[in-house]
Each structure stands twice: as C-alpha cells, then as structure tokens.
UniProtKB/TrEMBL annotation:
Coiled coil: none annotated. Its EC number is 2.4.1.290. It comes from termite gut metagenome. Pfam families: Glyco_transf_4, Glycos_transf_1. This is N N'-diacetylbacillosaminyl-diphospho-undecaprenol alpha-1 3-N-acetylgalactosaminyltransferase. InterPro entries: Glyco_trans_1, Glyco_trans_4-like_N.
Length: 333
C-alpha cells in the first residue's frame, strides 16, 4: 500500500511533526509512505517538496488580504483564521497518482484550497483527514473557545473585527465546506477525544465518519536518560526541582502560560519554602519574555527547537511537565 501524507510544512509546528512521525511509523511497518509539503526543512528522501517559487508567497499574502478586507482593514486576528481560497492542484503529481490512500493533515496558509481538496475527493482515491485543530469542523477558526455557532452554522464570528455579521466571512466559508463535505467520502481523524467530540457536534460533520487516534511517538527515542548530564548540557541547576512549560510560541495566550504563573503564585503563597527548591524552565520562541512575567520562582528560558534529540534531553532534565492550554488537540510534547 502507498500512502501520501499532505502537510503545509515538514517540521514547523506540532501538526507537521505529528505527520512526519506518522510517515516514519508507516514506513517502519511495511507501508510505503511519502509526505508532500510546501516547506521542506530536512533532506529526508521520503518528503517531497512542491516546486519552489514566489507564487507560494503570493497565495499566502492573497489569503491574508481577503481576511484583512473582511476585517474592515484591521489586523485583528489576521493570522488566527484561514479560508483556504488559494492553494496548489496536486492531483497531477506522480506522488499523488501512484498513491493508494491520500492522508490530509494541516494544509492551510496556501497549501491547498477548498477547490483543490474538492479535486482530490473527485479523484476517487480513499481520503483520510487528520484534524490537528478545529479548522476542519468550523468556518474559519482553528479554535472556537467559547463560541459554539459551528454546531449549527457559523456567523457573527468573534474572530472578525466588530463581531462579523449574519453572512460574514465565517458564514461563507462554512457554506463552502458544507457543500464540499456533503458528497465527500472522507474518514476524519481527531488526535484527542475532545476534538472528536467537538467535530461530531459540528453541523458540517453530520453523517460523517469521525474517529479518535492519538499521535504516534518514537518510544525508542523518547525514553529516560541521565538527568545530571541533561542538566549540564542546558546549564540547569543540579539540585532544584524543575518544572517545564513548552510551546512553539510562549506568548500564545491559548497555551496558558498566564495560568501557570497564577498556579505558581498560589503554590508559593501556600508553601513559601518551595521558593528555594522549585525553578521553571520555559521552552519555545520568545521564551526570554517569560523572565518578565511575575513567576515567584526563578525562570530558565530555552530557545525553540524542532530537533527531537534536543527535546529528549530537555525532557530528561526536568522533573515535571505542565500543559496549561486553554484549548488544544494533542500536543506532541
């Protein structure tokens, strides 16, 4: 069996990492898997990059322009939503033609448009679509937070400046997705029970097949190692209890670092003696900004890395990992 996994990126972001790990797991278990991406970051021969060109950048910019216009020319949530109005037709590529199964992953920001996806579905090949956030089952957002309109019909979108309207951008994209899915034969996969439940509640998924399958992990790589050596590698104190918080972008409010700060404040108030024993490790882009937050414990910022052997070392250096996310699918960390 030949499986083609499709993702915007090979290694940037949790969805890309999960897709890449799945490809490796399939190849290690007798399935011939390849990954088609717009942005390739390694020399992995199983990963195929779309033909490079300035057109990819223009597609991304054009999508932002349409969103910007819908936002009354405000930057409000400009990069928090996607509408899939631009993309690349991949159905004529040899990798697509030879595949027995097409496996979609995170395909936003100009990788595939809704029209491109429609053409993939029309090819007659079996399609699996792994959802790495809520975008597949909402109008335009990746995380709906308190909004539940996607359960019936998206409109008056809180992501649009001024609260949108009855037939705003979210409504129009919702209708396009509804039309797309109506005749589609797709198996949708959520990486968590929470996302499975959310997807099944969406009006877009009425009558659709939705399953929950956790992301794979390389258990021969992610395993215990020498903690002392790991702490020396990252210049972390040998005798402290270390708590790790990690995120692609530390300042992303959805990842909940403010709640971690508050939890630590409460802990320090109730047990002031812990100020001498507990310290915080923050991993990710803009981690240095965490030193300005009101943590009651000393903070050790570490830069973002997408190298798995480095992540293994960081995990082995700490005593506890905390995920205070407000909404999340199944973070690879």
């Amino acid at each position: 069996m030949r499986v083609l996994l499709i993702s915007t990126s090979e290694r940037t972001g949790g969805a890309a990492v999960a897709a890449c790990r799945l490809m490796e797991a399939l190849n290690n278990n007798g399935v011939k898997a390849k990954m088609l991406v717009r942005d390739k970051q390694t020399d992995n021969i199983s990963v195929v990059e779309l033909e490079a060109g300035k057109l990819h950048l223009w597609k991304f910019i054009w999508e932002r322009i349409v969103i910007w216009k819908a936002n009354r020319f405000k930057k409000h949530n400009l990069f928090a939503v996607d509408i899939a109005n631009t993309g690349t037709d991949i159905t004529s590529l040899p990798e697509f033609q030879e595949a027995d199964v097409i496996h979609l992953h995170w395909i936003n920001q100009g990788m595939l448009s809704l029209k491109n996806i429609q053409k993939i579905l029309a090819s007659g090949k079996p399609v699996v679509w792994t959802m790495h956030d809520m975008w597949t089952c909402t109008g335009i957002c990746h995380y709906a937070y308190e909004c539940t309109r996607y359960r019936e019909e998206c409109h008056n979108c809180p992501y649009i400046y001024g609260g949108g309207g009855k037939k705003d951008l979210s409504y129009r994209i919702f209708q396009k997705k509804k039309k797309l899915y109506r005749k589609a034969s797709v198996t949708f996969v959520a990486c968590s029970r929470w996302l499975e439940k959310s997807a099944k509640e969406s009006a877009l998924f009425s009558g659709q097949t939705v399953a929950s399958i956790p992301n794979p992990i390389h258990i021969n790589l992610f395993k215990p190692h020498n903690k002392k050596e790991a702490r020396i590698k990252y210049n972390l104190p040998a005798a402290k209890q270390l708590i790790l918080f990690g995120s692609l972008k530390v300042t992303d409010k959805r990842k909940g670092i403010d709640y971690l700060v508050e939890a630590c404040r409460i802990l320090a108030e109730k047990h002031p003696e812990l100020k001498d024993t507990i310290e915080i490790v923050v991993l990710g882009h803009k981690s240095e900004q965490s030193e300005q937050l009101s943590f009651p414990f000393k903070v050790h910022p570490l830069p973002f890395t997408n190298k798995e052997h480095e992540l293994v070392s960081v995990y082995n250096a700490v005593d506890l990992y905390v995920t205070p996310s407000l909404q999340d699918n199944l973070p690879n960390t």
